[in-house]
Amino acid sequence: MKLYRFLCLSGLVAGLVAVFVAAGPGYACACKKKTTGYFQKMGIEVAAAATGVLPGVAESLSGISGDPGRGRLVVINRKKGNCLACHKISKLSDQPFHGEIGPSLDGIARRYRESQLRQLVMDARKFFPQTVMPPFYVREGLYRVATKHQGKSILTAQEVEDVVAFLKTLR
Ligand code: HEC
Question: How far apart are alpha carbons 164 and 105 in whole angstroms?
Answer without folding.
Answer: 12
